[in-house]
Amino acid sequence: MEKIIISGVAAVYIVQQLTHWDLLAPLLGSLVFIAIALLLPKLKGMTLWLTAAFIVVGASFMLLRGADARDWFEAAGINVTIVTLFFFAPLFGIPVRLPSYADALKRFYELNLRSKNALFAGTQLLTQIMGVFINVGSIPVVYQMVFVKPQPGMSQLLANAMNRGFAGAIFWSPYFAAMTLVTSSLGLAWSSILPYMLGLAVLSLLVSWMVDFRELRQVQAEAEPPPQQSVEREGEPEKGAFPLGLGIYLTAAIAVILMLERTVSLPMVLLICMTAVVYPLIWCFFKKEMAVYRQGLNNHLTVTLPALQKEITLFLAAGFFSGSIGATGFGSAVPALLEQIPLPIVFTFSLFTVALIAGTSLIGLHPIVLVTILAGGIDPLSVHISPEYFAVLLLGSWGLSNPISPASAVNNLLAGLLKKTVFEEAAPNYKFAGWMAAVLIIYLLIISDLVS
For the chain, what is the mean pLDDT? Predict the structure, then answer.
């Protein structure tokens, strides 16, 4: 029943976007409330309490201002774009897991990333690239490659690299909930902020290496000389080259989205959904790997979607809460308060946003909650910034907050793999998040003229 309702939400949203039929709004809002009601009893711990609080407080706001049925349905539908993305975007990851690509990547790691610095930087970069397409699935994929043999003294450093690599993917991936939420709320094209987000992703690699440089140097000094390179076997890629087919697939996937965004007048989410259905299927067909595609599709429907029920429920509830709070005057109150501070409001608002999102993430609140409220409740012009500046600020804050959040899926996954608590896994990233926050503020001030 849960899968049917979630599928219904995605299907009705797509039809609504294609037909612009207003009568579908009540149906979509009703499906959202039904989905929350069905999934809420399955939640546990902090997620349960947060979701319930969003629904109760949001409903109270709606009742206090005497909202009509249309307002309720519109508030409920704020984050349905994310549910639609969850339903389709993981299909991009099916060809990435082709056995030939996985074997070539393992050999690439073994033969090319011999020094500790190269291993650290390579792990973070590969996690970022893979994360763009397969989201949290990038963590076990890269983990299996990195730890195919023991890595003395490097376990936590490599976990840091994977964690921060995933944060880098949040900055610029068009397939993530973060990008969908921010660009749809602010009415922006993904391509309009892509150059700035790619720049921030590169900076995250440099900041990460700088933060752990001393420890990397110590581990490198204690390491034994690397073993001699093994003789290549016939038919294997020369010197463990990065698999060309995988590189073409990943590059073309981004190029297709960019081309469609510029040539087809449809919302970004619909373009991603259509491409996610067609592109991986065509790739696997011509690679004669349809068995892998069928297995991946079945795994998506039976494993991935059920595993996302917690996030789906929380995101829908956060959207409803954001819609309800939008009419309380929150959007105008924040600029009025910040204007009392004797500093430029652009700087104070940027600092306020980063501190709020990172601070609440540190204590276990998912970044989507604050990002949904800020993106939907504050007019960027009221704080003297452009929508593009606001988007970079929100995405940057979300990305740097993810490695320090005990609620993040990546920290929980790495904690299980390394047999640590989630707080032990998050703690080594506090310094990284602090430096990235400072870099983000400076970066925004530097590019402010470009994004204005």
Answer: 88
- Min mean pLDDT across 232-241, 275-284, 386-395 is at 232-241
The contacts of residue 387 (CB under 8 Å, 6+ apart) are 186, 187, 188, 380
Determine the residue type at 6.
I
CA dist 452 to 22, 149, 193, 337, 448, Å?
34, 49, 12, 23, 6
Asked if 393 contacts 200 with a C-beta cutoff of 8 angstroms, the reply is no
Neighbours of 155 (CB within 10 A): 15
Q: What residues contact 427, with CB distance under 8 A and at least 6 apart?
A: none
Q: What is the CB neighbour count within 10 angstroms for residue 55?
A: 20
Report pLDDT digits (tens) over 119-151.
Answer: 999 999 999 999 998 888 888 888 888 876 767
**How confident is the model over 250-284, as pLDDT tens digits?**
999 999 999 998 898 888 889 999 999 999 999 99
CA distance 357 to 107: 39
424, two tokens: 């032990």
Q: Which residue has the tokens 């549910």?
A: 83
Average confidence (pLDDT) over 341-359: 93
Higher model confidence: residue 427 or residue 45?
427
**Range of lowest pLDDT (135-144, 202-211, 285-294, 433-442):** 135-144
Cα radius of gyration rounded to whole Å, the chain: 22
CA nearest neighbour of 277 among 255, 310, 300: 300
DSSP character string of 258-326: HHHHHHS-S-HHHHHHHHHHHHHHHHHHHTT-HHHHHHHHHHIIIIIHHHTHHHHHHHHHHHHHHHHHG
Q: Is 129 helix (H, G, I), strand (E, B) or coil?
A: helix
The phi and psi torsions of 234 (rounded to 5 degrees) equal -60, 135
Q: Under a CB-based contact definition with an 8 Å cutoff, are residues 28 and 73 in contact?
A: yes
pLDDT of residue 235: 46
Report the alpha-carbon distance of residue 440 to residue 396 in Å, rounded.
7
Residue 419 makes CB contacts below 8 A (sequence gap 6+) with none
Distance CA 360, CA 397 (A): 11
Residue of 326, 450, 337, 417 whose CA lies nearest to 376: 326
Give pLDDT tens digits for 400-427. 999 999 878 888 888 888 888 888 899 9
Gap between the Cα atoms of 410 and 142, Å rounded: 12
Q: Output the six-digit token pair for 435.
A: 């430096």
